[in-house]
Amino acid sequence: MKKQRLSSTYKKLIDASAKAKKNSYSPYSRFRVGAALLTSTGEIILGCNVENSSYGLTNCAERTVLFKAISDGKRKFKAIALSTDADEFIPPCGACRQVIMELAGDIDIIMTNKKGNVQTKKTSELLPMAFKPEMLQKD
Ligand code: THU
Question: 33 CB under 6 A from ligand 1?
Answer without folding.
Answer: yes
